[in-house]
Amino acid sequence: MAVIGRRRSDFVPADLDFEKLELEGHKRAISHYYEECWKDYRYFWLNRSNLAMHFGYWDESVTTHSQSLVRTNEVMADWADIRPGERVLDAGCGVGGSSMWLAENRGAVTVGVTITADQVMRARRYARERGLSEVCTFYNRDYRDTGFEDASFDVVWACESAAHAPDQSEFLREAFRVLKPGGRLMSRDLYVRRPAANDYERSLMETWQAAWALPNLPTHERFMEMAEECGFVVGRHMDVTSTAVRSGRRLYRMSMAVLPLETLLVKAGIRNETQHKNLTGPIAGWRGHQLGLWRAAHTLSRKPAS
Ligand SMILES: C[S@@+](CC[C@H](N)C(=O)[O-])C[C@H]1O[C@@H](n2cnc3c(N)ncnc32)[C@H](O)[C@@H]1O
Questions:
Q1: Where are the domains of the chain?
Q2: Residues with CB under 6 A from ligand 1
Q3: pLDDT of 144-157, one tens digit each?
Q4: Yes or no: is domain 22-302 CATH 3.40.50.150?
Q5: Cα(5) to centroid of ligand 1, in Å?
Q6: How many CA atoms lie within 13 A of 286 on its CB side?
Q7: How many whole angstroms from its chain centre is CA 140?
Q8: φ/ψ bin of 253: left (φ > 0), alpha (ψ from -120 to 50), beta (otherwise)
Q9: How many Å is the Cα radius of gyration of the chain?
Q10: CA dihedral over 124, 129, 135, 136, signed as positive or negative
Q11: Predicted TM-score (pTM) of this structure
């Protein structure tokens, strides 16, 4: 049958669920980003001991990039006061670096979920190699709908992962549901600091957010409000941007240094558009940081005991 000239809507089934379609598209965008950019993370950011896909926490105890990545885990675990035997849901677990660190250093029993299927396979393999498969398990699930039982975790841990959610209250509601009464949500993330004041600032944020699949960053204040709307009591919270700056600058300098060669690799079809944006995005992000457009912050929230 000739189709030329027919309107696109003629082919759309009447019962198509656009919301679901959008959601599926968003999930695919995140997985696609992480799958395509895994080698960038593997060779230019993490190592086999830290397996960390987050920014570092640079304080006086830290002298190297790798130490700064581990320090992020230490600081978050101290804030959340994670104790031996506690069950921790690592929401958006990457390749399991924080989960394994929490098991090895705090005696936690961890369950990691990530929307990126490749990461689950890698995390399971790394856990097997470290003899941690019994205490660190990993699943390909959405942190907005984990399928775990109500009140089954002592801690929900979200390290630079909730920022991927189009609506972070969906993540918060699920975290609240799976936490035991009195349980803690320890989150660390990137937040908008102030609205863009002009087209240049807007384009910096859009370029960075599109590259890293961060569709709808709230302010930290709005994140805490949403947590309270979901029933959490927000406790300690802190702007930690100054401790993350060296990580951002490292990323910026590395990206700038390799960009000319990388652009040739893109032209030759050796690297693709998603991978290219993984370099141009952080360059825009760093410029946005210099203009004070975003911040990094830690938040400890608690589900009331009764
Ligand atoms: C920046 S990485 C951080 C990984 C890890 N927390 C770490 O610190 O190394 C963000 C992670 O969030 C995961 N993620 C994003 N959206 C998700 C969702 N809706 N459900 C589960 N995982 C998600 C990604 O697949 C990725 O593993």
A1: 22-302
A2: 30, 34, 52-54, 92-94, 97-98, 113-116, 119, 142-144, 159-161, 164-165
A3: 999 999 999 999 99
A4: yes
A5: 43
A6: 19
A7: 15
A8: alpha
A9: 20
A10: negative
A11: 0.92
